[in-house]
Specification:
Elements: H1 3-19, E1 22-27, E2 35-36, E3 39-42, E4 47-52, E5 58-62, E6 75-76, E7 80-84, E8 90-95, H2 101-105, E9 108-113, E10 127-128, H3 131-145
Parallel strand pairs: 1-4, 3-9
Antiparallel strand pairs: 1-2, 1-10, 4-7, 5-6, 5-8, 8-9
Helix pairs in contact: 1-3
Bound molecules: copper (II) ion.
Transmembrane segments: 127-145
Domain Phytocyanin: 44-103
GO molecular function: electron transfer activity
């Protein structure tokens, strides 16, 4: 592979790293039937990392805000469940289908998918950048340009 191709590959991966973020939602925090936070902003390609921290729960997609109507299969109480946002814009609703967690405890949540070119409210969300990858890519790119 030529140096230019290597550099292009590194820069492309760097760009992807900067744009894609991981957003953590705790499931069952404080041993309560809740998602924390229960609303997040994201853009297409971001990873929503559901971290099951207490109790027995799952995550399934629903058909509308606050709804307990299941439209996808869920994930049965893993330690982590990663969901990659594949919607360009709009809302994705989810809930816990275990027992009465949705109906009586309103264990629901919403992913607000923002147009990646028109983000207005991301400062309020717990975005986690993979800074280590950015650092390594930058060092390698700088080395190749010497
Ligand atoms: Cu639950």
């Amino acid at each position: 592979m030529s140096r230019a191709a290597v550099l292009f590959t590194i820069l492309a991966s760097l760009l992807t790293t900067v744009i894609a973020t991981t957003i953590v939602i705790n499931v069952g925090e404080d041993n309560k039937n809740q998602f924390v936070p229960n609303a997040v902003n994201a853009t297409k390609g971001d990873v929503i990392a559901f971290h099951f921290v207490g109790g027995h729960h799952d995550v399934v997609q629903s058909d509308s805000f606050g709804s307990c109507n299941q439209i996808t299969n869920g994930c049965p109480n893993p330690e982590w469940y990663n969901y990659t946002v594949d919607l360009p814009k709009g809302q994705i609703w989810f809930f816990c289908s275990t027992l009465t967690h949705c109906k009586y405890y309103n264990m629901t949540g919403t992913i607000f998918v923002l147009d990646s070119l028109n983000q207005t409210n991301n400062a309020a969300t717990p975005l986690v950048y993979t800074g280590f990858n950015i650092l390594i890519s930058s060092i390698v790119a700088a080395f190749l340009m010497i």
